[in-house]
Design a protein that fits this description.
- The protein is an alpha/beta fold.
- It has 2 domains: 293 residues, FAD/NAD(P)-binding domain (3-Layer(bba) Sandwich); 222 residues, no CATH class.
- It contains 17 helices and 20 strands.
- Strand 5 and strand 6 form a beta hairpin.
- Helix 1 packs parallel to helix 14, helix 8 runs antiparallel to helix 9 and helix 14 runs parallel beside helix 17.
- The longest helix is centred in the C-terminal third of the chain and has 21 residues.
- The protein binds NADP nicotinamide-adenine-dinucleotide phosphate.
- The site of NADP nicotinamide-adenine-dinucleotide phosphate has 26 residues, from helix 5.
- NADP nicotinamide-adenine-dinucleotide phosphate binds next to helix 5.
Length: 542
């Protein structure tokens, strides 16, 4: 049976490329594959495009990267650039943006929505991947591109008694599409990461009582969002080419300049003033534009961590609550979130902080949640408990490479791949958002990686190769470089106590290893260019 290029006709079929996911990564990969003349069939477990933005519909959800660069250059090149109405677009706007990308590039026709991929197995005898979906269908494809997302497998606490709870439970990453009435409810929010700090102020606005259950305190800086006037939107569109250039050459793929300063080369007064200016600018500008060494040197980091701790105490009126909210690990060891009035929420009389390290959570009860020393009676429990970062969603695909080796076994003792995308022993298999990807602005990383994957495949096709496979020695050399950078990082040294997901430390029993490439996104992109310019020396194409 053959498959038409619209992906809608056949059940079992032999396809050029299967793409998994319909977020920023999956959409750009699907587009790039089609552009290279390949038949592409894409799967998405959601009922429409959007990825993260399809699932995370919780009140307050918005990107903490500015819309001026939280966007696809690819799309801006083809159709009239999209104008976000706010500096930091909220979830409905980002979802609408991705919907428009899908419409304008006619991408939906490639997708089967509401379908999850259950198994991806390499068949050595045919050189094809066998892909099984949860509706019982089997497919074979020459290439598979996983774009399942880095933060897409929700983490649900293993708390007994959930079935006895008489109220409602929501996870931020599985928020219902229909309106959720929280007005006047007694609410418990578990988790104070990027999702928690966004939903907590919203819940505080409507709840009759709000308990915030915090395991590890967070450093949150203000986002400093605003609505953009029509003139500002026009100016922003005009400056897109300039922004794009700055983003391509930046370690975090953001158009913010480094200061060229060390936090240790200024007086205390100058340093305070600079942190104050950074706080007023908000978002990632605080981290990037203040001093160059706060993320790399402990002594420099101490200055910013201390400044932020003092800031929390200056905002939160009750000193005991302020002390509980104050982190003791170095800033940036966990991904720094930015939000709107997070710390201010704790000045409201009906908002109560519970420090779980002092008062552990034991179970659900019929009426709410049981702590070691008391019971909290609530109507609604909101789990803002995050994700099984990167490998959670990848392992659910049950990928097996040569000799039936599962991906989970390949990485059981350590993460390894080439440029975050390919692995020796897993021919014609590409990961968009694999371990050791550079943190940073996701749409930029996603489209650079998509383009790279499409270029590698196009080169293989040009050489009539049946197999495209990363050379073992090239992968080893790259990973040695990645590991050397990781071993020197503050995350490796201090991430464990902070439960940093970037170290696998938020999940008991997960591999403890730095999951990021810390050399900077632009170094990875340069390496992609180097591969292309030198005839893809990292690969066997046979
Ligand atoms: P997260 O940063 O991993 O935070 C999860 C929170 O839940 C942490 O406070 C964690 O405590 C807590 N938690 C987890 N399991 C728990 C348990 N069993 N009991 C008690 N507390 C528990 O997850 P997230 O907030 O969803 O954010 C994940 C990432 O998604 C972000 O870092 C960001 O990359 C992305 N994101 C971005 C935005 C944005 O752009 N604005 C918004 C949301 C998410 P510990 O710290 O102790 O583990």
């Amino acid at each position: 049976m053959t498959l038409s290029s619209d992906g809608q006709t056949a059940a079992a079929a032999d396809i050029d490329v299967i793409v998994i996911g319909a977020g920023f990564g999956g959409l750009t990969a699907t587009y790039r594959m089609r552009e290279r003349g390949l038949d592409v069939l894409s799967f998405e477990r959601g009922l429409d495009v959007g990825g993260t933005w399809y699932w995370n519909r919780y009140p307050g959800a918005r990107t903490d990267s500015e819309g001026s660069f939280y966007r696809l250059n690819l799309f801006d090149d083809i159709v009239e650039p999209f104008s976000f109405k706010e500096k930091f677009p909220a979830q409905p706007e980002v979802l609408a943006y991705l919907g428009r990308v899908a419409d304008e590039l006619d991408l939906r026709k490639h997708y089967r929505f509401g379908v999850s991929v259950d198994a991806v197995v390499y068949d050595e005898s045919t050189g094809r991947w066998q892909v099984r979906t949860d509706d019982g269908q089997d497919y074979t494809a020459k290439y598979v591109v996983s774009a399942v997302g880095i933060q897409s497998e929700p983490l649900v606490p293993d708390l007994p008694g959930q079935e006895n709870f008489g109220g409602r439970i929501y996870h931020t990453a599985k928020w219902p599409a229909d309106p959720v009435d929280l007005d006047g409810c007694r609410i418990a929010v578990i988790g104070t990461g990027s999702s928690g700090i966004q939903i907590i102020p919203q819940a505080a606005d409507v709840a009759s009582k709000l308990y915030v259950l915090q395991r590890t305190p967070t450093y949150s800086v203000p986002m400093v969002n605003k609505e953009l006037t029509e003139e500002e939107q026009r100016e922003l569109i005009e400056s897109l080419p300039e922004i794009r250039k700055a983003v391509r050459d930046h370690p975090f793929s953001m158009p913010y300049s480094f200061s060229g300063r060390s936090a240790l080369d200024v007086t205390d007064e100058e340093r305070d003033a600079i942190y104050g200016e950074g706080w007023a600018k908000g978002g990632f500008r605080f981290m990037i534009e203040s001093f160059d060494d706060i993320g790399t040197t402990k002594e420099a980091n101490d200055t910013v961590s201390e400044w932020l701790r003092a800031k929390i105490h200056s905002i939160v009126e009750d000193p005991i609550t302020a002390a509980k909210l104050t982190p003791n690990y170095p800033y940036t060891v966990k991904r720094p979130p930015s939000g709107v009035e997070f710390f201010e929420s704790f000045n409201k009389d009906h908002v109560e902080l519970i420090a779980l390290r002092e008062s552990p959570l034991v179970s659900f009860s019929e009426k709410g949640l049981v702590l070691e020393d008391r019971e909290l009676e609530v109507d609604v429990v909101i789990l803002a408990t995050g994700f099984d970062f990167v490998t959670g969603s990848l392992y659910k695909l049950n990928v097996q490479g040569r000799d039936g080796l599962p991906l989970s076994e390949r990485w059981a003792d350590g993460l390894s791949n080439y440029l975050s995308v390919t692995l020796h022993g897993f021919p014609n298999f590409f990961v968009l958002g694999g371990p050791l990807y550079p943190g940073g602005n996701w749409p930029t990383v996603a489209e650079e990686v998509s383009t790279y994957i499409a270029n590698v495949i196009a080169e293989g096709e040009k050489r009539s190769a049946q197999v495209i496979e990363t050379k073992a020695e090239v992968e080893e050399a790259w990973v040695a470089h990645v590991n050397e950078l990781a071993s020197q990082s503050l995350m490796a040294q201090y991430g464990k106590d902070a439960n940093a997901y970037g170290l696998g430390a938020n999940i008991e029993g997960k591999l403890q290893s730095v999951f990021f490439y810390l050399g900077g996104a632009q170094v990875l992109f340069d390496q992609f260019d180097h591969e292309a310019a030198s005839g893809y020396p990292g690969f066997e194409m046979s």
